[in-house]
Amino acid sequence: MSLVSVNLEEAIGTIIMNQVEKRNAVSEALVGDIISALGWLAERSARAVVLRAPAGARVWSAGHDVRELPAGGRDPLGWSDPLRMLIREVEEYRAPIIALIEGSVWGGACEVALACDIVVATPGATFAITPARLGVPYNATGLLTFMNAMPLHILREMAFTADPIDAHRAENLGIVNHVVPTDEIEAFTYRIARHIVANSPLSVSVIKEQLRTLAGAYALTPSMFERVQGLRRVVYDSRDYQEGIEAFLEKRQPVFTGK
């Protein structure tokens, strides 16, 4: 059974994440179904896509499925990790993707939401970047997603504290495009989608790809890249990384030692 539902109406696609029992954790299975849904919509020339949880959800997504992270000694967020695959699909999809956010957004799911082209949220939505809470290092391209979406000082605060910020603060910081009352968010979001659909699909698609390319145009020497990767290995080879995963699975607070 698919973990998403997908439909297309008037060139607007909708993907609803339905893995409710796991709070839409970004698992390999869920990612596979989202990517398949995007492919189905692309084949039918969708000009805009809305990515959402079921109406009234308290959690949009709980983030990366921690149970699928390796125990240690291997990069937990490598090139072929499901989260990285989903981010690439969202960023490279030829039509704009609108994240319709109800509920809380955690960890890697926060990156998924911010990788979308437009973010619309209800007043009760919250956003949290939580790898430090689990002792997990973050991928350099993932950090770039966040850097392109928010001021650096805000990213530092969110990453260092792992505390959520509410939708109104996110809107004031430019992280979220619009905060809309819950009973109005569907109509509002699909109104944006209809405006997109009314424009030239080729022009919109090319502009999206231009913006994606320019947003990633940071000069990085091979030695700088090796330095960034080396810093990540310090974390995923550590006892703290193992402790974070074990504590999550055992439903207890982790005890980090910095080793």
Question: What does this 3D model show about the protein?
Answer:
This protein is of the alpha/beta class and 259 residues long. It has helices spanning 28-43, 82-92, 108-115, 131-134, 140-149, 152-161, 167-172, 185-197, 201-215, 222-236, 239-249, and strands spanning 4-9, 12-17, 48-52, 59-61, 97-101, 104-106, 118-121, 126-128, 165-166, 178-179. Helix 1 links the parallel strand 2 (12-17) and strand 3 (48-52). Helix 1 (28-43) packs parallel to helix 2 (82-92) and helix 2 packs parallel to helix 3 (108-115). The model has no long low-confidence stretch (mean pLDDT 90).
Question: What's this model, at a glance?
Answer:
The termini are far apart. The radius of gyration is 18 Å and the shape is globular.
- Molecular shape: globular
- Classify the secondary structure makeup into a structural class: alpha/beta
Let me know the number of strands. Answer: 10
Low confidence ranges? none
Taking Cα atoms only, what radius of gyration do you get, to the nearest Å? 18 Å
- In the sheet with the most strands, the strands line up as 1-2-3-5-7-10
Order of helices and strands: EEHEEHEEHEEHHHEHEHHHH
Give the termini separation.
42 Å
Number of helices: 11
Helix coverage percent? 40-55%
Mean pLDDT: 90
Largest sheet, in brief, is: 6 strands, mixed
Q: Hey, roughly how much beta strand do the residues contain?
A: 15-25%
